[in-house]
Amino acid sequence: MLKINQEIASAILDNSGLGIIFIDKTRKIQLWNNWMTHRTGLDLKDVIGVHIKDALINIPHTFFDTLDYVYKYSLPRVLSPVFHMSYMPKDIPAKQFIKILPVLDDKGELEGVLILIEDITTHLTYEEEIEKKSKKMRILEEKARHDEQEALAWLKEQLDFNNALTSNLGEGIIVFNRAGIITSTNPATEKILNWSGLELFGIHIKNIISDASKALNVLESKEVIKSDEEFFKKKDGIYIPVSYVASPVILNEKIKSVVITFVDISEKKAIEDKLKEEYKKTKKILNDLVNTLSFTTEIRDPYTAGHQRRVTRIALLIAEEMGLNKDAIEAINIAGILHDIGKIAIPAEILSKPGRLNSYELQLIKGHPRIGYEMLKDIDFGQPIAKIVLQHHERVDGSGYPQGIKDNEILLEAKILGVADVVEAMASHRPYRPSLGIEAALTEIEKHSGILYDASVVKVCLRIFRDKGIKLE
Q1: For the chain, which domains are there?
Q2: How far, in Å, CA of 7 to CA of 168, rounded?
Q3: pTM of the model as a whole
Q4: Backbone angles phi, psi at 438, to 5 degrees
Q5: Cis link prior to 402 (omega < 30° from 0)?
């Protein structure tokens, strides 16, 4: 069995990314590590000697059925359903991978059960555990002053247990000294990296970590360093993605060694990559749908062909100049391309009528934002596209349509689209009139800034065309 000193063993226990519970023959808790304290809010003093069922009151009965099996047959079992840990700070489910391992004495009889709990939904936080380690060391020093013999016996018991624990953990553990030389590892490291313990012993840590790794920085900073994704090298030279925590072991204010606990995240990374690829495919399908809908509208109204795209270009220039975030800009892009989709329900002869519209025809035209909303409201764009389309003819003073809402009731994206729509429409040719020109359009929005149109949007639009010299295509 791997032999390591008490300081290293304590660092391993306190910085483990696993929940660790040891219960005796009577199923009473004898060990409860900092991971469990962090997740349940119960300290060791709260649960020591307490029956496991009284401590984990919200765990499903499946866990205890499995625990009964291990006590009856002395065989290890593994559980990986969704469990709800009792007393969690946030009342949300967490995916737990649980190992239940029998611990046998020298005669092969059951002495107790070791429970290892791994949270596979989030990365663990270790700052509190480091603080707990310091507190435990102070308690240990005080205990040693009062009863040295008792403290030494307790230390030996803890060391023996910790040595056994490191052999069963699923996390890899690598210990290296100030010179970067590896001094010890655990079986999980050998399994993950395909090195034997003898091959790893005495070599430099740089044979394992990548050149970009920050693990060696612990020697200078004397602080815990965590990484959600770096690459460690296997024996065959292939790099695998891992998440790790590198913790300093400090004695007499000097770093004696560094303990790295790490987990292979290859499978997790593969799943993330697959999800990203699926997202790209979904995004392309959505874009194709948007373009098809836009083309369908323009094909029925040849006089305004390209109008939606020109409006979108102006709106995007305004949004980018205003410094809107990526999500808002994407919403404007989609809503701009589709803002007149409701005109698909209006007779083509009205859309292309060269003369003035009568009141009935005008009401039909004014209905296109609501028709567009009804067409788009059930499509999950991930953004309020349908609502932006519905509001793009609303005005700040409440004189717009179809709802007559005003000012802050109107989405900023809809305000931007509304200004862009007015500028493009006035500057372009229509069946009932020739183009009025870009300057006339700018004069219109400037005249009604803060009345019909949002003042901040108008200001940016004027700057784009007048100061930056942007031209309509």
Answers
A1: 18-123 (3.30.450.20), 127-264 (3.30.450.20), 270-467 (1.10.3210.10)
A2: 19
A3: 0.45
A4: -65, -35
A5: yes
